[in-house]
Amino acid sequence: MTTVKLEEELHSNTRRTRITYRGLVDGRVAAIKCYRKPLFGLVHWIRALRRGKKIRRVGGPVPPTVYAGWIAELTCFGFATEFLTGYRPMRELLRETDDRDEQIQLIKRLGECIADLHKKGIEQPDCNLTNFLMGADGQIRMVDEDDVRVHRAGLREGVALSNLSNLGARLPPGELPLVLHQAYLEAFGDAGSGIRLDVKEFESQVSEKKQQLRKKRTARDAAPDREYD
Ligand SMILES: Nc1ncnc2c1ncn2[C@@H]1O[C@H](COP(=O)(O)OP(=O)(O)O)[C@@H](O)[C@H]1O
Ligand SMILES: [Mg+2]
């Protein structure tokens, strides 16, 4: 039988129906996401499991799954992935530097990462910058697989554009969203024949999505304009 030990809470949603812990699975450090909502928790857990399998089948940049099952300590189902030791959320990395070149390098890596996801048919609709973690070697891994979609026939251009704009909307307006767009197109290379992702359309979707995010934050009483949020 697998032993699961929860050690430290990392993050939870406001209603605390989904809590992520750092913990140990048979002694191995893991990030353990617990689905606590009665009944629906089970539905979400099953969905996470199915999606997790699909993402790994197409070679998505996610940490390996170490456990999926009952968490006795919290009496709910949980999904655990290998803990990304030494990795840091892109939001933190971007917030802590004022150096323009460093910011640009980080955004370029992010653009390449999204191009790679899209090439594999993966769409991460939750483009929160805490869902992308970077290692010391510059590798980016994605977490928060609950809402991820895998398009077997590849992403349609409209979906790709909307997805990239969603991420662009988390960046301060101006140069950085354009750096993201450019890095994405370059990384897509030949695989992107057919995908143009018009820059004007991208910019217009970025500002539209920025408005939506602002509204959401105001509704939640959060500070309206936090950087990289
Ligand atoms: N495998 C992992 N290794 C290290 N940290 C992780 C891992 N998985 C998640 N985290 C951290 O926990 C946070 C919450 O996990 P996430 O799956 O994004 O939950 P939520 O749906 O609540 O946003 C992430 O933003 C990330 O900082
Ligand atoms: Mg998340």
Between the first and last Cα atoms, what is the distance in angstroms? 40 Å
CATH architecture designation of the largest domain: Orthogonal Bundle
Extract low-pLDDT stretches: none
- The number of helical segments is 6
Quickly give the structural class: alpha+beta
> So what's the CATH class of the largest domain?
Mainly Alpha
Largest sheet: 5 strands, antiparallel
Bound molecules: adenosine-5'-diphosphate, magnesium ion
Shape: globular
* Beta-strand residue percentage: 15-25%
Mean pLDDT: 94
Number of domains: 2
Helix and strand string, N-terminal first?
EEEHEEEHHEEEEHHH
Strand order, largest beta sheet: 1-2-3-5-4
How many runs of DSSP E, i.e. beta strands?
10
Q: Portion of residues in helices?
A: 25-40%
Per the CATH scheme, the topology name of the largest domain is Transferase(Phosphotransferase), domain 1
What does the radius of gyration come to? 18 Å
Oligomeric state? single chain
Give a verbal description of the structure.
Helices cover 40% and strands 22% of the residues. The protein is an alpha+beta fold and 229 residues long. The chain folds into two domains: 4-82, Phosphorylase Kinase, domain 1 (2-Layer Sandwich), CATH 3.30.200.20; 88-219, Transferase(Phosphotransferase), domain 1. A five-stranded antiparallel β-sheet has the order 1-2-3-5-4. Strands 6-8-9 form a three-stranded antiparallel β-sheet. Strand 8 (132-134) and strand 9 form a beta hairpin. Helix 4 (157-168) packs antiparallel against helix 5 (175-188). The protein is globular and about 55 Å long. The model has no long low-confidence stretch (mean pLDDT 94).
